[in-house]
Each structure stands twice: as C-alpha cells, then as structure tokens.
C-alpha cells in the first residue's frame, strides 16, 4: 500500500486532524491548500499554520480561474434563474478534487486524503462511497458526484469518528485549529449573504410580484434571488394565513405562494444523473433518497431513462428546490444521484 498521501488542508480542525492521524499511522504526508477566490486568503494562511505545526510540506494551488468559471458563475446564474444551487456538489468533481489529483501527480503522491466525514469500501475492484459512522456529520451527499478516478485514490480517515474525537486528536497534536468553530458559510461568501454577493457582482435583482394562493398579486418581492422554493419566513408580506413559496418564475419575475398545508410533494424529477461506479442506473430500483444535505434518506422507487430520473416517494415529503441534489442510497452505500429539476 502506498504510504505517500497528499492531504487537502483548509485551516479547519477536520483537515488538520486528518493530516495528523495519517502521520500517526506512518504515512509520508504532504499538504495542499486550494486558493479559489479572494475570500480564501485566510484559508491559505490557516493551512500554512497547520502545515508548519505538523511539520509537513505545503503546496498552494491557485484554482481561482477554474472556480470562477465552474462554480461562481454557475452559482450566480442558478439563483438568477430561480434555482437554489449547491456549490459544493458542483465544485468537488469539477474543481477541488481535479486540482488535488493534479497536485498529487505533480508532487509524486499516490494517494489523496480529506477531512470529510464519509466512508469508502473496495469491492470487486470498485471503490464504493458510504455514509460516515457519525450520521449527524455524514458528508457523503456532498461527494456523490466523484468518480473512480478520485475514489480509488482517496483516504477518508474521519469515517468512523465523531467531532469530539476529531477535536481531541487535533488537541493531542497541539494544533491551533482544535477549538476552531465549524464554518457554516459558503466558502467564497464569508458573510453568508449570497444575495448581496450576487448583486454586488452582477447588479441588483429587479423587484416583482408575489402571487397569492388564489392567483392575485399580493405584494412586491425584492428580487427572485433573495428567495428559495419552500421558504416560509422573511417574505415581507402578511396574508392572514401561513404561506410558503411554491414556485419561482424567472421569465415573468413572479413568485407564487401556496398555503401552509399544501407544501407536500410525492414525485421528484432529476437530471444530470451520475454514479460513483460510473455505471448506468437500472431502469427501475428502490433506494433511500436524500433530498437535502441535512436530511435523512427517505424510501422511494426510482425510474431512470436517458440520464434522467423520476423519483416516486413512498410518503409525501416537504417541497424541494430546483437546483439541489437528490442522492440515492442502498443502506449506507451511495448509489449516485442527480440535480432536482422539479417536483409534483
């Protein structure tokens, strides 16, 4: 087994502990930090501190052009089209792990490692992606678009650990990140004001009409990129009854509302299907389907044809947003998934 491994450092406790645990296990460890936007300067500095504390070399890879083209442009365009994108599931295969592989090959490292909470298992020459032992921390949803080129070379040392164990490992190593709070924001938007970020970048989103459940105009919205399907709060209107956003129409610049009890769906439509093993999906199969990153998989029957899927849920589920990912599971194993294009 190869003993040279390149660890993706972000300055946080998870990646630093990952590197420390691999050093403890006898690996020859190097670190790499990806600079993907102006907001990543602090990340680069924190990764340098972690690498110095660990006594490992650090490579800095500038991916800003690729990140702008593949992630930021996609992210802003999706919100302006009334969708709710997930930048991490886009970035992982298109930018992050592509850059990690390139750096590893340039520097002579055979394996990669990250501080993600997820598991791997080799079976019949194929590396399977699994949920982490600590389901509260599980990040397999974010990695579902990775292929065998990455998974076959990847190590995930935190697969069986919970956060307290990870912090304890970092503390034993004397790492400054041991007590650093978890990051909750989008990595390229430190203040988490994604609407403000898009408007500063591309100009203000025009106001438009809210349409009531009865079909009448009932107020003005601030611009569609400030809202997401399923949203109930901070709408800025009062109709005398609970309502939520049922649909965002970018062509007409309208937001359609529905009554609080009408927020259930039974069928979800997906595009851009992908599977970690690279194989086509069966035409029909059962799976647990995760419709949000923080949700638990729900039972469903999946019908696939020509890169698209119709997911029929066993039980009604809260409305989902276009642009998010739906990920299929067989128990703890990730089967793949796709991008939500609609629901009914």
Structure description:
By secondary structure, the chain is an alpha/beta fold. It is about 25% helix and about 30% strand. The chain has helices spanning about 15-25, 40-55, 65-80, 85-105, 150, 165-170, 195-200; strands at about 5-10, 30-35, 60, 110-115, 120-125, 125-130, 155, 210, 215-220, 245-250, 255-260, 265-275, 285-290, 300-305, 310-320, 325-330, 335-344. The strands form four sheets. Strands 12-15-14-13-16-17 form a six-stranded antiparallel barrel. It has a five-stranded parallel sheet with strand order 3-2-1-4-7, with helices on both faces. Helix 1 (about 15-25) packs across helix 6 and helix 3 runs antiparallel to helix 4 (about 85-105). About 40% of the residues are buried. The model has no long low-confidence stretch (mean pLDDT about 95).
Topology:
Layout: E1 4-8, H1 13-24, E2 28-35, H2 41-54, E3 58-62, H3 64-80, H4 87-107, E4 111-113, E5 118-123, E6 126-131, H5 148-151, E7 154-155, H6 163-172, H7 194-202, E8 208-211, E9 217-221, E10 243-249, E11 254-259, E12 264-274, E13 284-290, E14 298-305, E15 308-318, E16 325-330, E17 333-343
Parallel strand pairs: 1-2, 1-4, 2-3, 4-7, 8-11
Antiparallel strand pairs: 5-6, 8-9, 10-11, 12-15, 12-17, 13-14, 13-16, 14-15, 16-17
Helix pairs in contact: 1-6, 3-4
Give a quick precis of the structure.
By secondary structure, the chain is α/β, with parallel strands linked by helices. It contains seven helices and 17 strands.
């Amino acid at each position: 087994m190869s003993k040279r491994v390149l660890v993706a450092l972000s300055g946080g406790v998870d990646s630093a502990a990952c590197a420390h645990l691999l050093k403890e296990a006898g690996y020859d460890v190097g670190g790499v930090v990806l600079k993907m936007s102006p907001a990543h300067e602090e990340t680069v500095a924190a990764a340098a501190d972690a690498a110095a504390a660990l006594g490992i070399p650090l490579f800095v890879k500038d991916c800003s052009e690729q990140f702008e083209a593949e992630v930021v442009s996609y992210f802003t365009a999706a919100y302006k089209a009334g969708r709710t994108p997930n930048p991490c599931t886009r970035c992982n295969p298109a930018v992050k792990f592509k850059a990690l592989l390139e750096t590893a090959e340039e520097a002579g490292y055979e394996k990669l490692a990250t501080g993600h909470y997820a598991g791997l298992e080799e079976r019949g020459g194929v590396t399977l992606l699994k949920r982490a032992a600590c389901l509260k921390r599980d990040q397999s949803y974010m990695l579902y678009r990775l292929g065998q080129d990455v998974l076959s070379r990847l190590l995930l040392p935190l697969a069986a650990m919970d956060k307290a164990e990870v912090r304890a490992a970092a503390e034993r190593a004397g790492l400054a990140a041991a007590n650093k709070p978890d990051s909750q924001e989008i990595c390229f938007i430190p203040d988490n004001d994604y609407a403000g970020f898009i408007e500063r970048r591309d100009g203000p989103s025009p106001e438009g009409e809210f349409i009531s459940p009865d079909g009448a105009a009932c107020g003005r919205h601030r611009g569609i990129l400030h809202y997401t399907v399923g949203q109930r709060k901070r709408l800025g209107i009062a109709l005398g009854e609970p309502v939520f956003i049922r649909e965002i129409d970018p062509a007409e610049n309208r937001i359609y509302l529905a009554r609080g009890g009408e927020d259930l769906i039974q069928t979800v439509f997906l595009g851009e299907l992908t599977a970690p093993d690279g194989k086509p999906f069966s035409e029909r199969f059962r799976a647990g389907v995760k419709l949000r990153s923080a949700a638990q998989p729900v039972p469903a029957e999946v019908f696939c044809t020509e890169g698209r899927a119709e997911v029929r849920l066993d039980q009604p589920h809260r409305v989902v947003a276009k642009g998010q990912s739906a990920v299929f599971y067989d128990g703890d194993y990730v089967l793949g998934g796709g991008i939500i294009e609609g629901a009914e």
